[in-house]
Amino acid sequence: MAPWDWPALSAAYAREEFAVDADALRPYFELDRVLTEGVFAAATALYGLTFAERPELARHLYRPGIRVFEVTGEDGAGVGLFVADLFARPTKSGGAWMHTVRDMADALGERPVVFTTMNVPAPAAGRPALLTLDEATTLFHEFGHALHGLLARGEYASLTGTNVPRDVVEFPSQVNEVWLREPSLLAAYARHVESGEPLPAGTLERLEAADLWGEGHRTVEYLGAALVDWAWHSLTEETVDAATADPAAFERRVLTEAGIDPDLVPPRYGTGYFKHIFGGGYAAGYYSYVWAEVLDADAVEWFREHGGMTRENGRRFADELLSRGDTRDLLESYRAFRGRDAELEPLLRRRGLADAAA
């Protein structure tokens, strides 16, 4: 088996071994229910937020089908506006993202206006929009970014919300993904669009087992790419000429010195097509995805140790992390929340690698 055979063979094995068909789950993830009884319900339970749709505001936006929600805190005070632009259009950029139209700024008396954008296929007239599990996860993820903007506090817009260092910006959104599988929440929103039956017992457990299959390979190929990125951006005036004279040899040496055999597990992105680090804003920063997951996994263990999705836990997370933006060093904020620095073990346990690391 060659390295390039791994993705297809691994996926085929997971389908057979774990008997999961992610596409068959679509009827259980109706978009409006996922948004209102899943995403919004989690934000209410954790942060005391309520969401009131404002169709009269949506009429002034650039396309029909975009929804606007006024967000209010538990004290009745306005928090900001959340805009959901979720359906694909012929001229729309692909992918999913959050962006801020107006950042929180106490100095100017401004409240945030944040967008979550996705590319869910628009349903036929009169039919509900159904999500894949990946799309439902993406909605929770991007709304985590939106919460980072909505719950921001600070004098200056340049220091609030998602205006934080690249290597921590994914942390709040990855934490928010976890609530998709919270049992009490899942029972409310993951129901068959026609029968109303809940998601069959054991379905998510099988999906999680399938997700863990091949995690070691995925982790090594990711870390390989991060090491290559770091090595290129650590070159000095004295070493750069030798590296650029033979980029493939330089890449192989970096990986071999780290204990990775590139013939068995090539890096996720090789130097010649690593757009993230040469044209995508991740120069010397590709590691940030896994660093954010270290923080996320450690924080989620704290939530579970303290009762899960509760208002008290959400208040602490918002007060010490979400609201701070870049007004305080993230590591200082994390220590204030967790009582210590983040540890690696929770991520290893999540990825099923704890025994291998022992």
Short characterization:
The protein is 46% helix and 9% strand. It is α+β, with helices and mostly antiparallel strands and 358 residues long.
Structure keywords:
358 residues, alpha+beta, Collagenase (Catalytic Domain), 5-stranded mixed beta sheet, 46% helix
Please tell me about this protein's structure.
- By secondary structure, this protein is an alpha+beta fold.
- It has a domain at 30-170: Collagenase (Catalytic Domain).
- 46% of the residues lie in helices and 9% in strands.
- It is built from 16 helices and five strands.
- The chain has a five-stranded mixed β-sheet.
- Strand 2 and strand 3 form a beta hairpin.
- Helix 2 (31-47) crosses helix 13, helix 4 (133-150) packs across helix 5 and helix 13 runs antiparallel to helix 14.
- The protein is globular and about 60 Å long.
- The protein starts with 5 loop residues before the first helix and ends with a helix.
- The model has no long low-confidence stretch (mean pLDDT 92).
